[in-house]
Amino acid sequence: MANQYDLVVLGGGTAGYVAAIKASKLGMKTAVVESAKLGGTCLHKGCIPTKSFLKSAEVVSVMKNASEFGIDSETPTFEMKNIIDSKNKVVDQMYNGINYLMKKNKIDVFEGHGRILGPSLFSPMAGTIAVEDPYDDEAESEILVNQNLLISTGSKPRELSFLPFDHDLVLSSDDMMELLDIPESIAIIGGGVIGLEFASLLNDLGAEVTVLEAGVNILPNEDKDVSSALKKSLTDKGVHFETEVSLDENNVNVENGSVKFSLDDEMIFDKVLVAIGRSPNIDDIGITNTKIEMDNGFIKTNEHYQTKDAHIYAVGDCIGNLQLAHVASKEAVNAVMHMGDSEPYQLDYNQVPRCIYTSPEVASIGRTEADLKTNDIAFKSHKIPLNAIGKAVIEGNKNGFGKLLVDPETKDILGVSLVGPKVTELINEVALAQFLDASALELGTSVHAHPSISEVLMELGLDAEGMAIHV
């Protein structure tokens, strides 16, 4: 017997469970299909566990460098098992919370692999979901007929064809979640967000880390000043960088329990982490049974996140926009509201905070100088070192700064980049300012607590009007 729903959500990660809760609150009978655990990559293999690891690494770093704060330094001892246990406690608490929310909002959860069916005896439209029992291959599939389908299946780590994951020497970010021993040496292929967060934490935990980046700069999509400052900070801490590196089957070899790179010099590592991006999780979900179109390997949608089948929506990593959990959640809410005949605020991707939880932290929003120049958009740049901000100095800032890009005529905020302590929290003030269409002057003349790192935003806003006090 088929089950009838107003909405079926395929994928119970951040976007999926948020969409389900929103739909339930709008009065829709809703089901979620998840092949693993609710919370998806973000909760179990991405955002939350990596930040837990980074916090543990920060504690180790603070103890090693306590003399900077007038305390005797101490080199701590630790076992990765205990750090993993600490991470698992956080994850379990959040996971239990999601399960509670599913029950509270009367959302049906189906465990198993969901596959989209074409038009059939269950429905004249494509979109019905068949859920395979994960514990019994012979069992009949659960059939979920729906008025609307939301695909939120997320993404998975990309691998190199000549260096596939073996989950022992050649690792993905997923494998890092259960790494029981810190390697003496590790190469990280990819100088993007994921690679640099692991470079930061592994370095703090005592590994000898080398980052191999194909491009001229790390963080190629961020402001060059950000890239330079973070590279300098991590280099000062002991991370080694090799840029403009071209890898292929001729200069990479896995043998005798190690990974060898034959570049200008031969480099041998205990392990290698491949962090070159993520691919959409859309294999074997029945895309070919629908009218859904693809764009460069991702599901193609319109501004309301509808596919070519108008009752089938898609959001999150599988559609190829910014692969960030908060983006996926906002896309999901907007998609559900559109299903309910509402007209939500369309998501402006230039007003989305981008955060990197390295040590030091990086946060940015809006356009970069390179982007503005490429698009021939006039701007004026204002930059203030965090050493001008007392609270940042107290926190141990070394190479941090704030940078504001404004329209020279209107003084509208075009972009902000921050490097330093706690800036991943600070960037949300800018996100609100942009959402409310605040000018640089309004950012600068609003009262900021002293001492606080947020004073850098006040000074940047004032500097855009030639009114800065402390620089």
What can be said about this structure in brief?
The chain is built from twelve helices and 24 strands.
How would you summarize the topology of this molecule?
Blueprint: E1 3-10, H1 14-25, E2 30-34, H2 40-44, H3 47-64, H4 80-104, E3 108-111, E4 113-116, E5 129-132, E6 142-151, E7 155-157, E8 170-171, E9 185-189, H5 193-204, E10 208-212, H6 224-237, E11 240-242, E12 252-255, E13 258-262, E14 266-269, E15 271-274, E16 278-280, E17 294-295, E18 298-299, E19 312-314, H7 325-339, E20 354-356, E21 361-366, H8 369-374, E22 380-385, H9 390-394, E23 401-406, E24 413-420, H10 423-435, H11 440-445, H12 455-463
Parallel strand pairs: 1-2, 1-6, 2-3, 6-19, 8-15, 9-10, 9-15, 10-11
Antiparallel strand pairs: 4-5, 5-6, 7-16, 12-13, 13-14, 17-18, 20-21, 21-24, 22-23, 23-24
Helix pairs in contact: 1-7, 3-4, 3-5
CATH topology of the largest domain: FAD/NAD(P)-binding domain
CATH class value of the largest domain? Alpha Beta
Report Rg: 24 Å
Q: What's the domain count?
A: 3
**Largest sheet properties:** 7 strands, mixed
- What are the low-pLDDT stretches, counting only 5+ consecutive residues below 50? none
Distance between the termini: 71 Å
Chain-averaged pLDDT: 96
Secondary structure: helix percent: 25-40%
Task: Name the structural class.
Answer: alpha/beta
Name the overall outline.
globular
Per CATH, which architecture of the largest domain?
Answer: 3-Layer(bba) Sandwich
DSSP strand tally: 24
CATH superfamily caption of the largest domain: FAD/NAD(P)-binding domain
Number of helices: 12
- Roughly what fraction of the amino acids lie in strands? 15-25%
